[in-house]
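User: JAM3 protein. Structure?
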Amino acid sequence: VKPMTPRCTVPKAVPVGKTASLHCHENEGYPKSTYSWYRNSEPLSPDTKSNARFQNSSYTLNPTTGTLVFHAVHKGDTGRYSCIATNDAGFAKCEDQEMEV
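Assistant: Predicted structure:
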């Protein structure tokens, strides 16, 4: 079963240095969906250690739960965030939401 449009929760504004939690979830898809996050249409790597572009990022992305947590946000984390739920039957994307740091 193709995933439904996921529900995405993105904080509108977060003070520099604070923690920000972004959530993405849908429960229609079978098999269970995996989640990927995008900032300004650029994919965020789930593995920040192996990808040089994200080495300075302080986030944890869990593709199974759809949770994206910034441990200490900085100005560069400002942007439009969206999430895509994917399974064998297809994918669905939530609307972009702005997060300001």
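The domain at 7-99 is CATH 2.60.40.10 (Immunoglobulin-like). The chain has one domain: 7-99.
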